[in-house]
Amino acid sequence: MVASRHGADRLPGRRPRRPGAVPLPPVPAQPPPSRADLSAAQQRLITELLRVAPVAEELGRRFADAGHDLALVGGSVRDALLGRLGHDLDFATDARPEQVVALLRGWADTWWEVGIAFGTVGARKGDVVIEVTTYRSETYRSESRKPEVAYGDSLEGDLVRRDFTVNAMAVLVQSSGPTTFVDPHDGLGDLARRLLRTPGRPEDSFADDPLRMVRAARFSAQLDFEVDQDVVDAMTAMAERITIVSAERVRDELVKLICADHPRRGLRLLVQTGLARYVLPELPALELEIDEHHRHKDVYEHTLTVLEQAMELEDPGAGPDFVLRMAALMHDVGKPKTRRFEPGGGVSFHHHEVVGAKLTAARMKALRFPKDLTADVARLVELHLRFHGYGTGAWTDSAVRRYVADAGPLLDRLHKLTRSDSTTRNRRKALRLAAAYDDLEERIARLREQEQLDAVRPDLDGNAIMAILGVPPGPVVGRAWGHLREVRLDQGPLSPQQAQAELRRWWAEQPESRG
Description:
- The chain is α+β, with helices and mostly antiparallel strands.
- It has 23 helices and 13 strands.
- The strands form four sheets. A seven-stranded mixed beta sheet has the order 3-4-5-2-1-8-9. Strands 6-7 form a two-stranded antiparallel ribbon. The chain has a two-stranded parallel ribbon with strand order 10-11.
- Helix 13 (299-312) runs antiparallel to helix 14 (322-330), helix 16 runs antiparallel to helix 17 (371-383) and helix 18 crosses helix 20.
- Mean pLDDT is 83; it is low at 1-30 and 291-296.
């Protein structure tokens, strides 16, 4: 996620609010307009935008008085038509960035230049957060990872260089009289058709910015739209060109795709076009060949189903859980490397969770994810099979404690991932697995009531250990603490007398005690 189109890298996820950002009032969601309602939709768009953003007229007048155009553009227009306008408004202008700064200074409550190198200046006025970008075009050289920006002088020239027609609509904000809806590429019609299409030739669009190929998959997942066949063909032919785009930009698009309402649609498109081989190669690798002698479930389809089932278990109102979704997507990526054909036609994937955790960490590192996020996802992948040793509830209390301790703060997500991993069509087996996990959660709840299970610590702290053994701070204290924690996991809480006796027993076996 970036502050501007190519601004400083941020933690992946949703687009950050600008300084002091306040969300605009939500707009009730409505279906895309039908062809018969396009003129009414245009009027609804203009009316709705003026209702939630009256500062647009004031800003338009300020630019007009200085001899410049100002138009609301891109996703703001598209989302207003879809009834899902968010808290950001994007404008385009023929004014150069330094002129934009001069026009915003003294008018906006605050303003910032995070994306000014790419022609974008941000500001806040009251409750409205805006970005104003100079008309521009962006082009990548054959081996460059950074776009070259050239400024333009017309709104139509700015719109034609945008990624998709549904993002190439604008509302020209005039100083007097009605606003003007500008749609030179029939983006409104494509909204009605639920279609993603480029304003010009897709080959030219993707040559200008190869990231648009991944954006096609992302918008398809977010909007639940089809992608025009010419666009799909161009994505397939040009997939390798995505390698010149920085890992951070690719990462941000993947996060938005995975956190969309329909990620299966976008992920399928990445695999179908070959883009996944370059941005998430572990996913197409799950399309394991299945023959009549070595039968096993379709791991690729199973993975997409697990992802959707994990989404259903997310906390209502909390928004998409990227860590859970990414773990669901990556949980079986170790299977291709661990697949073994067994005598009699069976197939095994021994230790695929360990291999998968390493592959997950490596992929997320390559995509420049933060270390803590990477560690959480990889840990869930590593633990996702642990429950299957539970069987019919034969685990000891010690095993249950270790399950909770190993999961730590990821326990709730581990519960959801484990339940999501059941995609069997055998109803009896599915019910049996669900009942077994119900039993495990009940045992965890009971132990929580009896013990401080979520933060299992030894019964003696470091100070007590040093006082009892008469040793200074150092490695011995850490080893003693670790031993007592293992005893705590095995036996549960000890009394002070029992803990001291166990510490002295352990100490008697250590070489330092005889020094």
